[in-house]
């Protein structure tokens, strides 16, 4: 890390590392400012205000929407997949959904599942306790669930690091890093500074915006880097958790961030090295606005598929097969046992319903086995797993029987 890249205010926070890295210094981040936060001009300010309105609109329209609620499971898992991909852990939504059915997966998919488990845990706490949920115990719990799924994780999941870590660069020391995190002895206090900021009421009018506060909190958490691994994924989970803690829809931004990854890392550097939060504020605002477009596109496509099925398939009303159609947007990959539990029917009824939908081309059996079979809906998966920002492929809904 070059001192010339740091603002004078950040340089004042430099502190020598313990041996064997005592020739290098880390930054002990100052507490997040409670005062005025500049947004970098009217353009960013207007975009942040638009994003604020977008969050409010999404919350009002979809907080109790059946369509949005049904997609929650998928959106949470897509957050896990995209956030993991940003860190270089490659899996897919399809692979994750299949793993949840058969328990068999690659190490990368198992690791990605840990992010989903952590998110579910964290959202449960913030919905119960609001901003007061943002404690060290919460963050340790997130990390325990995430890192516990990382094969060969070095250290104890759910514990604050006791080693020097740095971001970027090559080699065994921080001489070529882009950011030197605080020395181990300072991490706990710095993390508490982040969480205290997330709990408190804003003091300055510029920080009434949840967009601004999320940008500041996220950048500060990433600067602290409290764990040996998993910091980025936990930091990105904290953003929708902040939305939820403030009574808003927990909009998941990692799919958008994955598409604009280089801008995201540059925005983090600006906030950490120069305390310039405007790029991160702008980036989160754009992410929220772009995610709304994607969300509405997905809902419209899913509803079109369901409408087409209900119009053309002529299934008996309230039959297992007919009721299954509404399940497939949440469970586009599933076993008969899963369907039986969801619908409250017998295993045989679920199996018969899936067999009927297979004949109609709505689902396909993947394993080729006679037992423990897994079914998938190609039409739903085409929509739900498409690359961010691309149009859904709404062909081949399975509207003609396969003879």
From TrEMBL:
<feature type="site" description="Important for autoinhibition of adenylyltransferase activity">
    <location>
        <position position="87"/>
    </location>
</feature>
<feature type="binding site">
    <location>
        <begin position="229"/>
        <end position="236"/>
    </location>
    <ligand>
        <name>ATP</name>
    </ligand>
</feature>
<keyword id="KW-0067">ATP-binding</keyword>
<dbReference type="InterPro" id="IPR040198">
    <property type="entry name" value="Fido_containing"/>
</dbReference>
<dbReference type="GO" id="GO:0005524">
    <property type="term" value="F:ATP binding"/>
</dbReference>
<feature type="active site">
    <location>
        <position position="225"/>
    </location>
</feature>
<keyword id="KW-0547">Nucleotide-binding</keyword>
<protein>
    <submittedName>
        <fullName>Fic family protein</fullName>
    </submittedName>
</protein>
<dbReference type="InterPro" id="IPR036597">
    <property type="entry name" value="Fido-like_dom_sf"/>
</dbReference>
<feature type="domain" description="Fido">
    <location>
        <begin position="134"/>
        <end position="286"/>
    </location>
</feature>
<dbReference type="InterPro" id="IPR025758">
    <property type="entry name" value="Fic/DOC_N"/>
</dbReference>
<dbReference type="Pfam" id="PF02661">
    <property type="entry name" value="Fic"/>
</dbReference>
<dbReference type="InterPro" id="IPR003812">
    <property type="entry name" value="Fido"/>
</dbReference>
<dbReference type="InterPro" id="IPR036390">
    <property type="entry name" value="WH_DNA-bd_sf"/>
</dbReference>
<dbReference type="Pfam" id="PF13784">
    <property type="entry name" value="Fic_N"/>
</dbReference>
């Amino acid at each position: 890390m070059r001192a010339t890249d740091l603002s004078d205010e950040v340089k004042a926070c430099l502190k020598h590392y313990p041996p064997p890295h005592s020739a290098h210094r880390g930054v002990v981040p100052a507490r997040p400012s409670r005062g005025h936060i500049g947004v970098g001009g009217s353009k960013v300010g207007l975009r942040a205000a638009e994003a604020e309105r977008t969050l409010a609109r999404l919350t009002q329209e979809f907080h109790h929407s059946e369509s949005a609620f049904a997609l929650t499971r998928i959106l949470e898992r897509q957050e896990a997949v995209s956030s993991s991909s940003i860190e270089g852990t490659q899996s897919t939504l399809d692979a994750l959904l299949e793993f949840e059915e058969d328990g068999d997966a690659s190490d990368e998919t198992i690791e990605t599942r840990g992010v989903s488990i952590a998110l579910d845990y964290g959202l449960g706490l913030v919905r119960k306790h609001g901003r007061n949920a943002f404690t060290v115990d919460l963050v340790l719990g997130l990390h325990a669930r995430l890192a516990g799924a990382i094969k060969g994780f070095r250290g104890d999941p759910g514990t604050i690091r006791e080693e020097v870590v740095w971001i970027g660069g090559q080699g065994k020391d921080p001489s070529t890093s882009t950011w030197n995190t605080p020395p181990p002895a300072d991490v706990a206090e710095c993390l508490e500074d982040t969480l205290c900021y997330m709990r408190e009421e804003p003091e300055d009018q510029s920080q009434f915006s949840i967009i601004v506060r999320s940008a500041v909190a996220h950048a500060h958490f990433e600067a602290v880097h409290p764990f040996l691994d998993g910091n980025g994924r936990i930091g990105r989970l904290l953003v929708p958790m902040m939305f939820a803690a403030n009574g808003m829809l927990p909009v998941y931004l990692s799919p958008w961030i994955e598409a604009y990854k280089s801008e995201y890392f540059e925005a983090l550097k600006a906030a950490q090295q120069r305390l310039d939060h405007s790029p991160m504020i702008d980036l989160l605002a754009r992410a929220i606005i772009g995610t709304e477009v994607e969300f509405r596109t997905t809902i419209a496509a899913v509803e079109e598929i369901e409408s087409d099925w209900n119009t053309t398939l002529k299934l008996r009303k309230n039959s297992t097969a007919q009721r299954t159609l509404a399940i497939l947007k949440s469970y586009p990959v599933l076993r008969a046992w899963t369907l039986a539990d969801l619908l409250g029917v017998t295993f045989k009824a679920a199996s018969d319903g899936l067999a009927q939908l297979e004949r109609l081309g709505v689902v396909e059996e993947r394993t080729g086995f006679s037992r423990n079979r897994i079914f998938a809906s190609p039409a739903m998966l085409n929509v739900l797993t498409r690359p961010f920002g691309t149009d859904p492929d709404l062909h081949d809904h399975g509207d003609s029987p396969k003879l």
